[in-house]
Structures are given as structure tokens and as C-alpha cells.
Amino acid sequence: MGATGSIGTSALSVVESFPSRFRIVSMSAGTNLEKLLPAIAAHRPRVVSVKAREDAERVRAEFPGLLVGWGAQGLVDVATYPEVDVVLGGIVGAAGLASAYAAVKLGKTLALANKEVLVTAGEPVMRAAHASGAQVLPVDSEHCALHQALKCGTSGEVSRLVLTASGGPFRTRPIETFGAITRAEALAHPTWKMGPKITIDSATMMNKGLEVIEARWLFDAPPEKIDVVLHPQSVVHSMVEYVDGSVMAQLSPNDMRFPILYALSYPERLPTPLRKLDLAALGRLEFFALEPARYPAVPLAYQALRAGGSAPAVLNAANEVAVAAFLEDRIPFAGIVETVGRVLERHSAGEVLTVDAALEYDAWARREAASVLPAVAAASSSAPA
Fold first, then answer.
1. How would you label 21-50 residue by residue, b for 16+ Cβ within 10 Å and e otherwise?
2. 229/347 Cα distance (integer angstroms)
3. Which of 213, 278, 318, 321 is least buried, going by the fewest C-beta atoms within 10 A?
4. Is the distance from CB of 105 to CB of 79 less than 8 angstroms?
5. pLDDT tens-digit series, residues 69-80
6. pLDDT number for residue 383
7. ∠ at Cα 62 (59, 68), nearest 5°?
């Protein structure tokens, strides 16, 4: 799912390294046919889905006999195709929710890179996975690290989960200059190459807030047992502290193909063709405390997690709208988290027992965020320099 994005292209690279082990049965993409068409030619899937009907017609013309869908139903068809064993969820945002949910309902393994699935509808998705016996394996590097480090003890022996974060491009920038942050500066991540939405989330650290919420569902951990620490090198991907004081960390080069290979081959480990970690060349590992004033998105995410129910879905949807507005130069960088905060203030959390309910709250939050944007923009334009 999301074959032409950064996760999808990394996954195709992993599959190409193990032609006798993995086969692409189905794939979805948005509108990037320039990348999708060569991928179809290389991997010969049985079914493909794209965003728009006219693009689906073009793909059918290029590949006669290929099953080609489009839109929301096309995504579900790709994820639930009978021959599929593992669904790699790499679609950005809440758009990946329905297909991921459909996959776990059928008992398919979900290798999840899309953190918004569990942020938006963690309870119904995990309940469906437990009912069907589906495995949900994390592909986010941080959660993949936790998944591995948690094998060093029992759940009752865990003291806390520690998510690491690079700190993004503004870890040392004076906070008083945040009003002048440009789109180009926010898109210049120091250690990871990702799509624009995820890169902006890394700059605000909303991505880390979403990962805290995701960790709650993946590992059944309360918010008070989930911490965040800054680690600029992005080599220690996360850690688990046990009650005896031992801290288990997972390290690897900052390449998403490592967690993708782990999820695709789990519970086995396959010999990797990827670059190994050279500790001597690395030299040092640094860790710093998170500054809430510099990264207000993180405490806002903890607030939503503690509120529970629909609050995380609202947080995520409002953030998606705000990030899009920033990328279109309609609000300043600081306006992203301000928009999300204003929407959360307007929301009273309710239960999310179904995916449909989650999507209703998602839609409400998008409307509210859109209504808030003009006031956020006006406030920033009238603020003193």
C-alpha cells in the first residue's frame, strides 16, 4: 500500500533483494504513474489500485489483463486480495485506515508503517486483529526497535518504553526565530529522507507524538510508561527499560529497509544485503531531553492520548489539514500546532468503537481545522516581528 512513496519504494527494493522469498501480489499508488508503471512492469502484480478513474484506465491500457481498481474501494481490494499474506501499510495519513482494517479482519499480517491507522482507530483495529489472529508488525523504525527489545523480558518486567527522536532540523535553532521558519527549512530533515508530510511532522515532532499514541496500542502501554528522548544520530531507534534497570536498545543504520525486512521476514531473520553498522566510524551517540516549549506537539499528543476515545483521531486529522496548509504557505510553521490545539479545545472526546466512528471524528476535525486556519493565519500576520 503506497508503492510509489518512500516506504513503498524501500519495500520494493527489499523484495528485489530476495526474489525467491517474496513476491508482490498487489500494489496501490496515488497519482505517480511515472513510478508506478515501471514497478508494475518489474514485479507483475495481479491487482493494482490508483487514486483516480482516469489513471486506472491508463494503467489498464498499458497492462491488458491486469486487475485495476481506483479510489477507496480499490485500496481495499488490493489489501484483501486472496493471495496476499502480508500487507505493507505505507499510505500516508488516515487514507490508509480502511484498507488496513479490512486486511486484519481477514487475518492477514499487517506490516504497519502508517502510524495514523492506530492513532485514528487503535481500539477497533487491534480488536479486529485479536479476533482474526492477525499479526500487526510495526515498520516505523522506533516501534520496530521496541518490538525487538521487548523480547528481552516479560511485559510485567517492563519499566518504560523510550522512543528516540532526531529532533528534526530545529533542535538547536533559537525558539524566538521559529516565526521565520520557511517551508524549505522545515523540509530539510537532517537524517531521514521522507515524503513532505512526514518530514514536516518530524520538524514539529508531531510524528513523535503520534508514535507515542501508536505505541500505546501496539504494546498495550499506558502513557506514563512511554517516554521520548532526543538522539540526533538516529542510530539507536528506541529502547526498553526493565524493572532491574537494564536498558535494551536496537541499533542499525538509518535506512527504512531494515525495519521493512524485519517485518516481512518475522519471526525469522534473513541475512541482509544492506550496509552494516560501523560503531567505530560512528564514534559517539548523544541523547538530550525533549524541550516541551520547542516541541509543543508532543505534550499535545500526550494530552489527546490521556483524553482517549476520539481525541487522537481529532489530533491527527487536524494536523493533516494544518500541515497541508503550511506546505501551501497559508499558515506559518508555528501555526501547525496552534491549529491542532485550537481544534482539540473545541472537541469533547467520545468513544471510537468502530472504524466508521473514527472516520466521522476524522471528518469533523478536518472541517474544524479548515475553519480555524484563517484565524491562525491572521494572528500570525498581526504578531510583532
1. ebebbbbbbbebbeebbebbeebebbbbbb
2. 29
3. 278
4. no
5. 999 999 999 999
6. 60
7. 35
Helix, strand and coil content of the chain, in percent to the nearest 5, comes to 55, 15, 35
The grid coordinates listed for 69 are 481498481
ω into 267 cis (within 30 of 0) = yes
Output the nine-digit C-alpha cell for 294.
520547542
Calpha distance 307→311 (Å, rounded): 6
Per the structure block, which three cell numbers stand in for 185?
A: 527549512
Q: Side chain identity at 378, as an amino acid letter?
A: A
Output the pLDDT for position 384: 52
What are the residues facing 227 on neighbouring strands? Answer: 162
pTM, whole model, 2 decimals? 0.93
What's the whole-number average pLDDT of the chain?
94
Once rounded to an integer, what is the mean pLDDT over residues 69-95?
94
Neighbours of 231 (CB within 10 A): 23
Q: Read off the pLDDT of residues 288-345 as tens digits, 9 standing for 90 and up.
A: 999 999 999 999 999 999 999 999 999 999 999 999 999 999 999 999 999 999 999 9
In CATH, the architecture of 6-138 is: 3-Layer(aba) Sandwich (3.40)
